[in-house]
């Protein structure tokens, strides 16, 4: 039974606040608490045996939700913070088993083609159609996981981390925009086990979030897309002031930073864009630079979400890519093409 203001019967909001503060205090000291055990985060994928995103063999945990909306995003299913439906029409056999089970009538049969088209705006991602589809044409992306559940998966590959010098990478979406109590507890447990931890980030989050994870993080794989704030706004939906401010603060805090720069022809591959980024990086201590040429996997995912993929996105040609690489190397950076 709920009391006034949503408090439990016999308690007050102040009692609840005190309990949360106490549980967070336990978390900071590394103690288990009911609060920590209840924490959950939206996860879209746990990728095993990754040889990118850091040294050695790694497990990459992809969090759901991102404050940016990059036109070239290769994981568009990670943008929203809620679960959502992906529909793969190529796998659909037109059995129509999904139509009657949808409680929101968000699946409509096309009278011409016979296909069960998804009405994404009405879909609540309840998962009924996913369960009814025997051929995997419908998939709900985003699963709420506890820290314990993630650690159970991460721990399965301890041998590979030890033998290869690998570890764990938290990615997304944007992990630094997730529940930081969850993220900090996950990182605390990883470090307690001796795992190397990298954080792949776009940098758009309060710096307080970064301060909470600094002590547990071995390296930040930090995206720098554009130096020009207006172009950054045009292509990502946000300007880059907070991103660059956080980058400077992390550098001043002694964090190990590897810059990642996605390369999209017509967006940030011109000399003026590259030199502007180099100028931003000049006063900072950067360990290395990863150049990431655009690839079109995000276009196919967007179509499965009922979104129109942006036209005109393409990677730089080989000659241009090598020229960009040379610009960074001439400034003394160790450069890698790819993650």
Q: What is the tally of helical segments?
A: 13
Weakly predicted, low-confidence segments:
1-16
CATH superfamily of the largest domain: Aldolase class I
Classification by helices and strands: alpha/beta
3D architecture notes:
By secondary structure, this protein is α/β, with parallel strands linked by helices. The chain has two domains: 30-80 and 142-337, TIM Barrel, CATH 3.20.20; 84-140, Alpha-Beta Plaits, CATH 3.30.70. 35% of the residues lie in helices and 20% in strands. The chain has helices at 13-29, 34-38, 98-101, 128-132, 147-155, 158-164, 180-192, 207-213, 229-236, 241-252, 271-281, 297-304, 318-330; strands at residues 40-50, 58-63, 84-87, 107-109, 116-118, 138-141, 143-146, 167-171, 196-201, 219-223, 257-263, 288-293, 335-337. The strands form three sheets. The protein has a nine-stranded mixed β-sheet. Strands 3-6 form a two-stranded antiparallel sheet. It has a two-stranded antiparallel sheet with strand order 4-5. Strand 8, helix 7 and strand 9 (196-201) form a beta-alpha-beta unit. The chain is globular, with a radius of gyration of 22 Å. The protein starts with 12 loop residues before the first helix and ends with a strand. Mean pLDDT is 90; it is low at 1-16.
Features:
disordered N terminus, 2 domains, 9-stranded mixed beta sheet, alpha/beta, TIM Barrel, Alpha-Beta Plaits, 339 residues, two-stranded antiparallel ribbon
């Amino acid at each position: 039974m709920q009391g006034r203001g949503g408090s439990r019967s016999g308690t007050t909001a102040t009692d609840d606040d005190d309990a949360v503060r106490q549980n967070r205090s336990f978390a900071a000291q590394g103690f288990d608490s009911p609060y920590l055990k209840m924490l959950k985060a939206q996860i879209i994928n746990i990728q095993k045996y990754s040889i990118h995103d850091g040294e050695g063999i790694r497990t990459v945990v992809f969090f759901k939700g991102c404050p940016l909306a990059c036109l070239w995003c290769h994981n568009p299913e990670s943008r929203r913070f809620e679960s959502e439906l992906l529909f793969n029409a190529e796998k659909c056999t037109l059995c129509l088993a999904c139509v009657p089970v949808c409680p929101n009538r968000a699946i409509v049969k096309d009278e011409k083609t016979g296909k069960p088209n998804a009405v994404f705006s009405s879909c609540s991602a309840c998962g009924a159609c996913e369960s009814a589809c025997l051929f995997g044409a419908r998939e709900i992306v985003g699963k709420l996981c506890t820290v314990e559940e993630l650690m159970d998966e991460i721990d399965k590959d301890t041998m590979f981390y030890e033998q290869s010098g690998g570890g764990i990478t938290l990615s997304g979406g944007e992990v630094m925009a997730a529940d930081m109590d969850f993220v900090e507890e996950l990182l605390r447990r990883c470090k307690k086990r001796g795992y190397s931890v990298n954080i792949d980030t776009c940098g758009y989050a309060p710096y307080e979030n970064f301060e909470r994870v600094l002590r547990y993080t071995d390296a930040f794989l930090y995206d720098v897309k554009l130096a020009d704030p207006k172009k950054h706004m045009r292509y990502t939906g946000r300007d880059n002031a907070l991103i660059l401010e956080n980058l400077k603060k992390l550098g001043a805090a002694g964090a190990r930073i590897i810059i990642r720069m996605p390369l999209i022809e017509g967006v940030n591959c011109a000399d003026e864009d590259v030199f502007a980024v180099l100028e931003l990086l000049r006063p900072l201590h950067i360990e290395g630079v990863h150049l990431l040429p655009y690839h079109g996997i995000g276009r196919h995912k967007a179509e499965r979400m009922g979104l129109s993929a942006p036209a005109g996105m393409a990677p730089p040609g080989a000659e241009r890519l090598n020229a960009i690489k040379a610009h960074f190397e001439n400034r003394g950076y160790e450069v890698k093409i790819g993650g």
